[in-house]
Amino acid sequence: MPWFVYLIAIVSTPMLLFMAWTRWQAGRMKGETLKELPGGLRAADTSRALIIYAYSPSCGPCKSITPRVDALMNAGKNIVKLNVHEDLASARQMNIRATPTFILMRSGRIEDIRLGPQNIEKLTRFLDS
């Protein structure tokens, strides 16, 4: 095989392993019940469906999806934003390893964790169900 094939494999393997590890870490929280939200998230209404949106101001995908999340919040949807740069302790407690991260909760129980940009319509359907 040509040398560049080996080079591509050497460079891409650690990146793929890191992505798999991040998804595995996020999946470990699925099904957990949180009695109390950390730090600045305590004001959230956990009695109904809730989405915690963890973002970073310097994240490219976050910059594109944050205005749509803000529009949902202004429409009265139960969404809480967590800036991982400003509230690092809460991000660590929630085991957030990548941005954007959407934590979907119902009655204090984590139902799903979604990494990366998400379809806003699907998130809205979760909140409305």
Give your account of this protein's structure:
With 129 residues, this protein is of the alpha+beta class. It has one domain: Glutaredoxin (3-Layer(aba) Sandwich), CATH 3.40.30. The chain contains four helices and four strands, in the order H-E-H-E-H-E-E-H. It has a four-stranded mixed beta sheet. Helix 2 links the parallel strand 1 and strand 2. It is elongated, with a radius of gyration of 17 Å. The protein starts with a helix and ends with a helix.
Oligomer: single chain
CATH class: Alpha Beta
* Largest beta-sheet characterization: 4 strands, mixed
How is the largest sheet built, in terms of strand order? Answer: 2-1-3-4
- Judged by helices, strands and strand pairing, the structural class is alpha+beta
According to CATH, what is the topology? Glutaredoxin
Rg for CA atoms? 17 Å
Number of helices: 4
The portion of residues forming beta strands comes to 15-25%
The coarse silhouette is elongated
Distance between the termini: 53 Å
Helical fraction equals: 40-55%
The unreliable regions are: none
